[in-house]
Write a structure and sequence with these properties.
Structural class of chain A: alpha+beta
Helix content of chain A: 10-25%
Number of strands of chain A: 3
Order of helices and strands of chain A: EEHE
Number of helices of chain B: 3
Strand order of the largest sheet of chain B: 4-6-11-7-10-9
Distance between the termini of chain A: 27 Å
Strand content of chain B: over 45%
Largest sheet of chain B: 6 strands, mixed, barrel
Strand content of chain A: 15-25%
CATH class of chain B: Mainly Beta
Oligomer: heterodimer
Helix content of chain B: 10-25%
Order of helices and strands of chain B: EEEEEEEHEEEEHEEH
Radius of gyration of chain A: 13 Å
CATH topology of chain B: Cathepsin D, subunit A, domain 1
Number of helices of chain A: 1
CATH architecture of chain B: Beta Barrel
Strand order of the largest sheet of chain A: 2-1-3
Number of domains of chain A: 1
Number of strands of chain B: 13
Chain lengths: 67, 165
């Protein structure tokens, strides 16, 4: 591991189909909503919080590369 | 930022893209924000993607920045994630933040960002060659499960200037 770094884990279970924001220090989901605008609004003024995006449904295909 | 050499380390992060063979998917995500005039977005998830030509983001973010995409720098179509999408480009500011996503710490530069309608994940910013990989030296290691971001001149310092044959 680089400088004892471990990958940041996030438990996305239960958030399928929702947009989420995560505390970057812990990987914990701190905001979730089906409307991304609500997530953006609730994340305002919260330092260390990163809007991650949408959690896909279980039957959606996995992107293997976006570029 | 101070004038000390840039070296920011980022652990890989688990992606919401479910599982690969029942295991977690880890990707080189870095916190970024977009800036236009006196407007800036929240911190967003930047995916370092050496296979992408440019920086791409949701047009929802353009709305938040007050950008009129009808007044774009250029327009083109891309194949992204198996889909064909239309991107309208605008030159704006990008900020890279450290791993703990402290919004007060960042390096900022100007780049063309392609805004896409119907982007599959509105918080995701694709960080490709022009606008990101031409700004930094990136060292990604799936073995170490981390990515290092350094000044772009570091590559030449480390390996020498690479000449084409």
């Amino acid at each position: 591991m680089a400088l004892d770094m471990e990958p940041i884990r996030t438990d996305f279970r239960g958030y399928e189909g929702q947009y989420v924001a995560i505390d970057a220090r812990t990987g914990k989901i701190v905001i979730a909503d089906k409307d991304p605008r609500v997530v953006f609004e609730k994340a305002k003024g919260r330092n260390h919080v990163v809007v991650h995006g949408r959690v896909p449904l279980a039957d959606e295909p996995i992107y293997v590369g976006l570029g | 930022m101070a004038d000390q050499p840039l070296l920011w380390l980022y652990p890989y992060r688990e992606d919401a893209q479910s599982t690969r063979l029942d295991g977690p998917v880890f990707r080189p995500f870095v916190p970024v924000s977009l800036v236009h005039g006196d407007q800036s977005t929240l911190l967003l998830t930047g995916l370092i993607d050496t296979g992408a030509d440019s920086v791409l983001a949701s047009n929802l973010l353009a709305d938040q920045l007050g950008i009129d995409l009808d007044d774009h720098d250029g327009e083109t179509t891309h194949a992204v994630g198996g889909r064909v999408v239309k991107a309208r480009y605008k030159t704006i500011g990008l900020r890279l933040h450290p791993s703990d996503a402290d919004d007060a710490k960042y390096v900022q530069w100007e780049a063309q960002v392609g805004f896409i309608e119907g982007w599959h994940s509105d918080g995701l910013v694709l960080l490709g060659s022009v606008g990101f990989l031409d700004r930094f030296t990136i060292t990604a290691s799936r073995f170490a499960q981390a990515v290092a971001v350094e000044d772009r001149r570091v590559f030449d310092d480390r390996f020498g200037v690479v000449h084409t044959a």
